Amino acid sequence: MTEAAPSNSNFIRHIVVDDRATGKHAGRVVTRFPPEPNGYLHLGHAKSICLNFGIAADFGGVCHLRLDDTNPAREDPEYVDAIKADVHWLGFDWDALRHASDYFSVFYLCAEKLIRDGDAFVCDLSADEIREYRGTLTEPGRNSPYRDRSVDENIDLFRRMRAGEFADGAKTLRAKIDMASGNINLRDPTLYRIRKVTHQNTGDAWPIYPMYDYAHAISDAVEGITHSLCTLEFEDHRPLYDWCLQRVDLPNHPELVRPVIDAGLFMPVSTPQQIEFARGNLDYTVMSKRKLMELVTEGLVEGWDDPRMPTLSGVRRRGFPPAAIRTFWDRAGVTKQNSTIEFSVLEGCVRDALDASAARRFAVIDPLKLTLTNLPEGHTETLTFPNHPKNEAFGTRAVPFSRALWIEREDFMEVPPKGFHRLIPGGEVRLRGVGIVKCTEVLKDTNGNVTEVRCTLDTDTRHGAPGAERKVKGTIHWVSARDALAAEIRLYDRLFNVPDPDDDSDGKTYHDHLNPDSRRVVSGYVEASLANAKAGDSCQFERLGYFVADARDHAPGKPVFNRTVTLRDSWTKATAK
Ligand code: ATP
Ligand code: MG
Which ligand is located closest to the Cα atom of residue 68? Predict the structure, then answer.
């Protein structure tokens, strides 16, 4: 354990260092990642995951995964499973897995304490009336006519709320703070509401559910969280968070945590400290669960794990390595200033990670036949290629070579523009790892489309031959037509074609900015060695980009590859013009 600020330091790590130096949090550091299981995690959540788990690890502490399931109607076990899988995939493991619903009895006891202490009351105002009484940013609110109910009456009514005697919306439990506060969150905020909805964990046991701010503060204290990290929009909620902690006063009221002790879930309680940081945002992306949910339910993508989605399950299927995402958020840093980071920066991290980890392979995504007329029919040989240009540990592989090849259609041009250094009629190009070929004939169909190019191979330029060093300007890749495997290749690109698809100031919505070319499916050929590729395996198709065998659809005998990222950033160039 180190007490110096770690290398990837930020203001939160400095706070933790100070807190440990002053003894404010003398025990171990405990953080938590608290997603609401109402959707899949996205790249923004990854920032919070990396921060919470990272800080715990840096200081020899622990991080909890807490499913914030206080809102029964919107939650689904499918999301819970996906959240757990995504956190693991990112490379983190939780010390304790908890649900806010594990603490429902504690929340209830704490609420009765607040009532007994005169800090909470049962209110009969409707939601609309509460809003009306609340006032505005410039005008104070008014006290509820129910604010002065006696403790006994409040206890009786709250117990009857809990017993299910009242209809949804008929009553609420509210904190008694200050209807004139400049901070609207302190104007007698609601702590509990009636909702007769079946809950995924607690079934029909509870007809009342706690509100987020109240439940969150107490959950943190019950779990012994020391540093409760959240995004900036909760800055205004911090006074309420602190009010709840102070009035409930768990450290001095062990009787309130009896239910978690009895359930075997006890950890020493704490007085946690809320610290806010800026949300992570990426350009060319929408990143709210609501919008991502709409993309799924409106069928604009193929599901939460569509490889164009910024969800963790989407980028996983796209082939982004988890290490690239961790590096990205590490480099982005943690501050209190909201900003939007370029998607190309994340893609750069993906390229760096894959450059080091992905084996090289040959594939042709838009095939054109090339025949080497000076090789005999049936000619076949096996060439050896390194799997990685910079890392011998990757070893080598055998690549079959024969008289008939597939090359990339765009590597041949009949009427080339100036500066085109690949194959042209009568011109020469090097076939990667083979030698120099010269185009002697171009075959076309009746519509004038090129169907085949015929070439002669200069055998003097083959590996080890006297002319092997002879230079030509271009080198192209190829696969052997009789050996290559036909493959479905999905060319993914950004889902939106403007940097800020959320911007609706011009009356357009993100729906209007969907990139129509974000998914293109082509039939190509991949080298024979990829017959062994397993779903999820990444490789570089030389000259084309990084690709991954699709997690859902790839199967032996039916290869399907997703393009993870091109080899170079074409967007920054295109948009800089
Ligand atoms: P969304 O608005 O996408 O639904 P949320 O904040 O409602 O996100 P939660 O499941 O409540 O989603 O979030 C779990 C944790 O992840 C919270 O602590 C939240 O602050 C954090 N988080 C969510 N989005 C981001 C983001 N873009 N950057 C950093 N942290 C985020
Ligand atoms: Mg939320």
Answer: 1
Q: Hey, what are 450's tokens?
A: 């090129």
For ligand 1, what atom is nearest to the CA of residue 280?
28
- Strands laid side by side in the 62-67 sheet: 30-33, 62-67, 96-99
- Whether 111 and 44 share a structural domain: yes
CA-to-CA separations, 91 to 53, 321, 410, in angstroms, rounded = 10, 10, 40
Q: Does any domain span residue 521?
A: yes
Give the Cα separation of 5 and 22 in Å (integer).
Answer: 15
Residue 2 resides in a domain? no
Residue whose Cα lies nearest atom 15 of ligand 1: it is 35
Hey, whose CA ends up nearest to atom 13 of ligand 1?
35
Ligand 1 pocket by Cβ (under 6 Å)? 34-36, 44-45, 47-48, 230-231, 279-280, 287-289
Ligand 1 midpoint to CA 327 (Å): 19
Which of 226, 248, 279 delimits the end of a domain? 279
Q: Which residues are catalytic?
A: 36, 279, 289
pLDDT in tens, 104-147: 999 999 999 999 999 999 999 999 999 999 999 999 999 999 99
Q: Please give the model's pTM, rounded to 2 decimal places.
A: 0.94
**Within this chain, do residues 408 and 538 fall inside the same structural domain, yes or no?**
no
Q: Measured on CA atoms in the order 329, 332, 337, 341, is the torsion positive or negative?
A: negative
Torsion angles phi and psi, residue 293, rounded to 5: -60, -40
Pocket test for ligand 1, best of 31, 33, 40, 48 (most atoms within 8 A of CB): 48
The answer to whether residues 201 and 303 belong to one domain is: no
CB 285 within 8 A of CB 499: no
Beta-bridge partner residues of 487: 524
Total Cβ atoms within 10 A of residue 163: 10
HEC string of 473-538 equals CCEECCEECCCCEEEEEEEECCCECCCCCCCCCCCCCHHHHECCCCEEEEEEEECHHHHHCCCCCE
Mark which of 249, 279, 309 sits at the end of a domain: 279
What is the number of structural domains in the chain? 3
Q: In 3D, which of 144, 135, 202, 199 has the Cα closest to residue 173?
A: 144
Structure token digits, residue 177: 């703070």
For residue 37, which atom of ligand 1 is closest to its CA?
A: 10
- Measured in angstroms, how far is the CA atom of residue 36 from the centroid of ligand 2? 6
Each residue's pLDDT tens digit, 512-557: 999 999 999 999 999 999 999 999 999 999 999 999 999 999 998 8
Q: Whose CA is nearest to atom 10 of ligand 1?
A: 35
* Structural domain boundaries enclosing 524: 289-360+488-575
The verdict on residue 274 lying in a domain is yes
Residues 38 and 165 in one domain: yes
d(C-alpha 471, C-alpha 486), whole Å: 32
Ligand nearest the Cα atom of residue 287: 1
Split at pLDDT 50, 70, 90, the class of 423 is very high
